[in-house]
Each structure stands twice: as structure tokens, then as C-alpha cells.
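Incident log, support desk, overnight shift.

02:14 A customer reports that sequence design results differ from what the structure should imply. Their input is reproduced verbatim below. On-call engineer (initials T.W.) acknowledged and began investigating.
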């Protein structure tokens, strides 16, 4: 599964607004320069983010964009969904009774990819803009390595299962 640039850039830009727009609106030209994203692309994304109720625009001198609600209340999944980015890992179309292979059956791995899509959505729903700004994302999934440096799955660096007494 690959998240497209639309979703990634929207999240990057919203994190920028959360970080730099605490006391004043942030201009898209500033976001574009800091994040190295095309200004015209940001304009398209922010039109969708505004319609999605995630940002508020201010016109005139000193204008720009600010978050519509606090960063701690803005989930990453909301941003991705606002820019029409589906969070799915299957090649089947949502709501379509037919499967993804030519005989209208589901592929053998359909349930695996569908569950992966759900897990991605759950994870992105658990992360807020504040988490990203304050660098509290690593380990949020609960699948990080313990303090001893060994992977959480109990395997050694060479992939062999280790028993711990």
C-alpha cells in the first residue's frame, strides 16, 4: 500500500500550520517554501481542507490559514480523508460486490489487505497533529523494540526465535 502525494503533502502542510501558526495565520507560500511543495498544489489541497472544516482562511494583509480546531483534536486520518485519499490496501473497489480478479472473485489475500487497511486507518486515527509536532509518533503503535534492543517479536537480529527466561 502506498499513500499518494496528495495525502502525504496535506499532512505535511497541516503539521507546518500547526507548528508555525499558533499565534497568526500561515501563508501557503511560507508552507510551500518550508515543505518544498508546489504552491498551486497546496492551494488545491487547502481548498479541500477548508471544505472539510480543518482549516480557516483569513484574507488580506497578515492573512493565511490556521487550524479550525486545536492540533490535539485534529487527527491525521481526518486530513487524509478530507483530501479524498482512500485508506485501503486492496485493489477491490469499496462497496462493490465483485472481487478484484477477472472471475469476480476476491483474491486469496483480500482479507489480509483489507485488515491492513483497517489497521492503517486505526493508527492514523490515533495520531493527532500535536503528536507529530511534538514528535510523539514513534512507538505509538505499540510495536516498538523494548529497551534491550531486541525486536518485539522475540526474534534476534538474524531472525531466529529467542526464548527469554
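02:41 Re-run completed on a clean worker. Output:
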Amino acid at each position: 500500500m502506498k499513500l499518494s502525494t496528495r495525502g502525504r503533502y496535506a499532512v505535511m502542510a497541516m503539521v507546518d500550520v500547526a507548528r508555525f501558526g499558533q499565534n497568526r495565520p500561515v501563508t501557503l507560500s511560507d508552507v510551500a517554501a518550508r515543505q518544498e511543495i508546489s504552491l498551486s498544489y497546496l492551494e488545491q489541497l487547502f481548498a479541500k481542507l477548508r471544505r472539510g472544516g480543518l482549516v480557516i482562511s483569513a484574507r488580506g494583509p497578515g492573512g493565511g490559514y490556521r487550524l479550525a480546531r486545536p492540533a490535539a483534536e485534529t487527527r491525521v486520518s481526518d486530513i487524509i480523508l478530507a483530501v479524498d485519499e482512500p485508506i485501503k490496501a486492496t485493489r477491490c473497489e469499496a462497496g462493490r460486490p465483485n472481487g478484484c480478479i477477472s472471475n469476480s472473485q476476491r483474491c486469496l489475500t483480500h482479507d489480509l489487505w483489507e485488515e491492513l487497511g483497517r489497521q492503517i486507518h486505526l493508527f492514523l486515527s490515533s495520531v493527532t497533529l500535536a503528536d507529530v509536532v511534538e514528535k510523539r509518533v514513534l512507538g505509538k503503535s505499540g510495536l516498538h523494540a523494548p529497551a534491550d534492543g531486541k525486536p518485539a517479536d522475540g526474534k534476534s537480529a538474524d531472525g531466529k526465535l529467542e526464548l527469554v527466561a
